[in-house]
Amino acid sequence: MTALAVILLVVGIILLLLGIFVGAAKFLLWVGIVIIVVAIIAWLLRYMRRGA
């Protein structure tokens, strides 16, 4: 019974860590998308100013 409790504890901790890392990965994905969009807008503004 004790071995089963230890295995369940380890599996629970691993699942908890995976949930945190997946949540962090989703957040970082959105941050990356925002940075790319800002970079594209900055590049377009620089391109339009140079052309005008």
Largest sheet: none
Secondary structure category? mainly alpha
Uncertain runs: none
So what's the overall shape? rod-shaped
Count of strand segments: 0
Number of alpha- plus pi-helical segments? 1
Percentage of residues in helical conformation:
over 70%
H and E order = H
Sheet-strand content, in percent, reads under 5%
Report the span from N to C terminus: 77 Å
The averaged pLDDT comes out at 85
- Rg on CA atoms, Å: 23 Å
In quaternary terms, these chains amount to single chain
What does this structure look like?
This protein has one helix at residues 2-51. The chain contains one helix and no strands. The chain has 52 residues and is mostly helical.
In short:
It contains 1 helix and no strands. With 52 residues, it is mostly helical.
Q: How are the SSEs placed, and which strands pair?
A:
Layout: H1 2-51
Features:
1 helix
